[in-house]
Amino acid sequence: MELILDGMRMALTLIFSLDREVLAVTLLSLGISCSATLVSLLIGISSGVVLALADFPGRRFVISLVNTGMGLPPVVVGLFVTLLLWRSGPFGFLEILYTPTAMILAQTVIATPLVAGITIASIQNLPANLKLQVRALGATRIQTVWILVREARLPLLAAVMAGFGGVISEVGASIMVGGNIKGQTRVLTTATVMETGKGNFDVAIALSLILLVLVFGINYLLTVIQQRERPR
Q1: For the packed helices 141-151 and 153-168, what is the interaxial angle rounded to 10 degrees?
Q2: pLDDT digit string (tens) for 106-155?
Q3: How far apart are the first and last CA of the chain?
Q4: Residue burial 191-200, b: 16+ Cβ < 10 Å; e: rest
Q5: CATH architecture of the region 2-229
Q6: CA–CA separation, 209 and 188 (whole Å)
C-alpha cells in the first residue's frame, strides 16, 4: 500500500513540476498513438464499409481475416514489422526501424482490424431497407455510403475509442520496432516497463497513472460526443 501511495505522490510531483522527460514521453505517446489511430480510421472505416456493403467471392473469408486481426498479439505484429524494416528486409532501405514512424506503422497494423471489424458490424446492423430507401430517393452510390456512415456514427465512435485504446496501451510492438530509445522512441508504456525492470516501482506507478489519466481523458471526450449524438 505504501508503494502505491509513493507512486501517486511521485505522479503528482512529475505532473505539477512539468518534468521535461515525462512531458516529452507523454507527448510522444500521444502523438504516435493519435497518428496511428487516424491512419487506421482512414483505412479501417473505408475497408469496413466496402466489406459491409459489397458482395464478391471470398467476402466472408476476408471478413473472417479482419475478425481474426482484431485479436492479433501486438508482439507478433512487432516481430513482422521488424522483419520487414530490418536492414536485410524488403523495406530496410527506408531506414525507419527504431523511429517513431516505425512505431506508428506497427500501431496502425494493430488498430486497423479493430476499426474495420467494428465498422463492418455497425454498417450491417443498420435497418436492412435503409439502403434501398436511400437509393430509391435518387441518391448516388457515394451519397448512399455517406448517409449510411452518418447513420452508424455512434458505433463508429466506439471504433475510434477501441482503436486508440488498443495502441496507446500497447507495449510489445513499441519496444520491438522502437527500441525504447531515450528522447526518440520512449513512450509511457515502454518507460513503465523499463522502470519496473530497474526496480523503480514508484516511478513506474507514476507513469502508469499518467497513462491512465491520458486514456481516460481522451475516451471521456469521445464519450461526451457520442452521448450528445445519441437519440433521445
Answers
A1: 70
A2: 999 999 999 999 999 998 888 878 777 877 777 777 888 888 888 888 88
A3: 44
A4: bbbbbeeeeb
A5: Orthogonal Bundle (1.10)
A6: 10
Left if phi > 0, otherwise alpha if psi is -120 to 50, otherwise beta: which for 136? alpha
Say which residues have a Cβ less than 8 Å from residue 137's Cβ, sequence separation at least 6: none
pLDDT tens by residue, 6-63: 767 777 777 777 678 888 888 999 999 999 999 999 999 999 999 988 888 988 999 9
**Residue 159 to residues 112, 141, 144, 153, 167: CA-CA distances in angstroms?**
10, 24, 21, 10, 12
Residues 159-169 have a mean pLDDT of 89
Q: How far is CA 141 from CA 5, 59, 136, 145, 171, in A?
A: 58, 20, 11, 6, 41
* Spatial separation of the C-alpha atoms in residues 149 and 96, rounded to whole Å: 35
Give the SS3 label for residue 19: coil
Asked whether 43 and 111 are in contact (CB, 8 A), the reply is: no
Section 200-218 average pLDDT: 84
